[in-house]
Amino acid sequence: MFDKILIAxxxxxxxxxxxxxxKLGIKTVTIFADNxxxxxxxxxxxxxxxxxxxxLAQTYLNQRKIIDLAKKYNVDAIHPGYGFLSxxxxxxxxxxxxxxxxxxxxAEAIExxxxxxxxxxxxxxxxxxLVPGYHGENQDEKxxxxxxxxxxxxVLIKATAGGGGKGMRxxxxxxxxxxxxxxxxxxxxxxxxxDKVLLEKYIELPRHIEVQLVSDGKGNHYHFFERECSIQRRxxxxxxxxxxxIIDDELREKICSTAVKIAEGINYLGAGTIEYILTPQKDFxxxxxxTRLQVEHPVTEEVTGFDLVELQIRAxxxxxxxxxxxxxxxxxxxxECRIYxxxxxxxxxxxxxxxxxxxxxxxxxxxxxxxxxxxNSISTSYDPxxxxxxxxxxxxxxxxxxxxxxxxxxxxxxxxxxxxxxxxILSHKEFVTGNIHTHFVETYKKQLDQSTYTDQTxxxxxxxxxxxxxxxxxxxxxxxxxxxxxxxxxxxxxxCFDLLEQSHNKITFAxxxxxxxxxxxxxxxxxxxxxxxxxxxxxxQSYINQDEAQQIIVNSxxxxxxxxxxxxxxxxxxxxxxxxLQSPMPGKVFKILKKEGESVQEGEDVLIxxxxxxxxxxxxxxxxxxxxxxxxxxxQVQGGVLLCEIE
Length: 647
Ligand code: ADP
Ligand code: ADP
Ligand code: MG
Hints:
It is a single chain. 26% of the residues lie in helices and 33% in strands. By secondary structure, it is α+β, with helices and mostly antiparallel strands. The protein folds into five domains: 4-103, Rossmann fold (3-Layer(aba) Sandwich); 132-201, 2-Layer Sandwich (Dna Ligase, domain 1), CATH 3.30.1490; 207-443, D-amino Acid Aminotransferase, Chain A, domain 1 (2-Layer Sandwich); 455-564, 2-Layer Sandwich (Glycoprotein, Type 4 Pilin); 576-646, CATH 2.40.50.100. The strands form nine sheets. An eight-stranded antiparallel sheet has the order 14-13-10-11-12-15-22-20, with helices on both faces. Helix 3 packs antiparallel against helix 4 and helix 11 packs antiparallel against helix 12. The longest helix has 19 residues, at 455-473. The N and C termini lie far apart (86 Å). One adenosine-5'-diphosphate (ADP) binds at residues 82-84, 236-237, 290, 294-295, 383, 385. One adenosine-5'-diphosphate is lined by residues 82-84, 236-237, 290, 294-295, 383, 385.
């Protein structure tokens, strides 16, 4: 077995590889760009080395530097992770030339599968079903237009060197074709230095289904069943699961044995994935092969019980696995959610900032794979994926339930994430029934929008905002004798509620005809927890700006919240009613100048509060009779408390 491996990647995948190496007794070298120096992977290896600063090309994509380091540190093999250099055939060749081993397939397989046209030609030879289309040499535009007409619109134009959705154009009708072709070629030429394209029939409402393969070091090829990856946004997977809810045993056997046939046909080595597109009529077509480990590999590990990174390493070491295909079984169901630092309600734009806290809480029956720790900045130079959350249960239904729990349980405080959005998908009727396709997110956009907060959800946010105010300002309206109508802005939308009772740890309010009571359980700094409606909530608050709007995170809910007195009156006194006198700050009741029942004029002193060695006279805000004085001389009061009422 290898003695030492260098991991040519960052973040969660670097940590993932370290984990398996530890298990196998292999030493590791992790590398990091200077701006990643505080990330966990930067000192996760037995040895960790800086790549210096600069662009991606100077750091994680700098082959020469990485290979030189590998030699210097005496490593036997290099694991490329995913992304970066993982599908770069020259990296494999240069590592081999330097006398080390690339943990992945040989350069020929990487090259073949990196070219959408060449791989299709090969797939045809092997007898793999392809999307109807044209992938020949002829790039003449008139000729391609004729081919498109033969295929029938809508048609998809793809760059043969493409990846990450670049160079792809959907053409709905003949008239759009030539313009789209030109745009696609331009984009492909810029991105890949190669403007060759191919044409495919555009499949309406397809599913993305893929099959995990691993080939050992002795030419034995295994499949590890399918993954369903249809829930995507911007051509990026968001939720993956296995088994797929649509695939029956017969179809499973077909797609999996086809995948194994591909591995045999190209003498594959190590882990790879065959991506298929599945039509609503359940016809499946080869899309492409990813010649590396996938982001979503954990769901396969959960369901089959195999450590895929271990198998990659053993294959690269030339070992035979020694088990049979029949030894690999699917047990139960697994889901992965990708937690992105992004705002689903603002076009999935990445959000940046600092990860204040990231951790598993109490419910621990899930796997959290993350490359971040408390205090890390989220770099905008890389993918905004913060973590992967993975659950495993006996059925799909229970897996969804578990994931909902896990999403609430895990703490991601600091930056806006897609966590709540993931929950909205998980509870969508069509997702629950397994009726999904790659356009799920756009198709159900309206229903998945934030405005679909239920009254209960909003009540939780209101409670969180009220407790947050209590904690932040240390002000408690300890006696509330009349109903207070208040307004709350949640993500810039206004809602009303009536505060019925508030003490230091309990609030009762009415919202849209229902009454809610919540209890504050604990708080420390910006973190607090509360209970109500049969549930427990973890919350975090941070002020965003002077106008008192703040970001509140409660379990997986994240909202921008602003509490205001109704009718835009902002002073507490006006909120409490005309004759309510409040303590302006924490202090002591120094002197009471009027008795209950006595009449006062507006502006007259009623009592004096001493705070910070100064006396503050509390003046009547209205003329009338002193009705209630809630404190005695010498008693401590908190800022904002109601001292006295005038009627
Ligand atoms: P998967 O099919 O496993 O989701 P993707 O093609 O989406 O794989 O890529 C895996 C990850 O690697 C993604 O998070 C993507 O942003 C990242 N990635 C892909 N190519 C590169 C690259 N050249 N440099 C850096 N990151 C990359
Ligand atoms: P890339 O290399 O950019 O990942 P793929 O060929 O894997 O390109 O396609 C990316 C995504 O585009 C797929 O996951 C699928 O959602 C969609 N797609 C690809 N081909 C088709 C097609 N013929 N019809 C409809 N959708 C397609
Ligand atoms: Mg793809």
